[in-house]
Design goal:
Number of strands: 5
Order of helices and strands: EEHEHHHHHEEH
Strand content: 5-15%
Strand order of the largest sheet: 1-3-2-4-5
CATH class: Alpha Beta
Largest sheet: 5 strands, mixed
CATH superfamily: Glutaredoxin
CATH architecture: 3-Layer(aba) Sandwich
Helix content: 40-55%
Radius of gyration: 16 Å
Distance between the termini: 14 Å
Length: 178
């Protein structure tokens, strides 16, 4: 199915609030709404990495948080610590650590990842305790909901929701049509 067939579009354009890998001048933008505790997102993680490697500077990748809190009790705190890491320029390092350690997302585990990344652990722990980054996480969820996201991972290609197979070849084929 062509991505255009869904009729769902991003309601919040990619911008300065987002976590972006790749050039702002890239012809293709892939947005993922994901959940760090979601096993499907865990399977998508290396696929997205492979697509990024294959497309290089033709692709801009954006990750937005969409923790499914009723099914994944640690997902929201994981999203919050990714935002805390962003405060020290380490969003992508934390994003990777969370996906590479999906089975260990308790608060103590999150603090270990912050320590391993050289973050200011006192600041991170305090921000987690005070839920400083929860509004940003919930903004992502709201923008996803308004864009037709109802599960994770959900991908958008150049602003249009992708409904095909999100295996490497499926994503590459859809991206090549744009």
């Amino acid at each position: 199915m062509k991505p255009e067939a869904t009729g769902f579009h991003l309601t919040l354009a990619v911008g300065a609030r987002d976590h972006i890998q790749g050039s702002s001048h890239a012809a293709l933008t892939l947005v993922e709404y994901g959940d760090y505790e979601c096993p499907h997102c865990g399977r998508a993680y290396p696929i997205v990495k492979a697509v990024q490697k294959r497309l290089g500077n033709k692709l801009r990748f954006v990750f937005r948080n969409f923790p499914l809190v009723t099914m994944h009790p640690h997902a929201e705190a994981a999203a919050e610590i990714s935002e805390a890491a962003a405060g020290e320029g380490k969003f992508w390092e934390m994003h990777d650590a969370l996906f590479e350690n999906q089975g260990a997302l308790e608060i103590d585990d999150l603090i270990v990842y912050a320590t391993n990344l050289g973050l200011d652990v006192g600041r991170v722990a305090s921000e987690l305790e005070r839920r400083v980054h929860l509004p940003k996480v919930r903004e992502d969820v709201t923008s996803g909901s308004h864009s037709g996201v109802n599960g994770t991972p959900t991908f958008f290609i150049n602003g249009v929701r992708f409904e095909g197979n999100w295996d490497e070849e499926g994503l590459l084929a859809a991206l090549s049509r744009h």
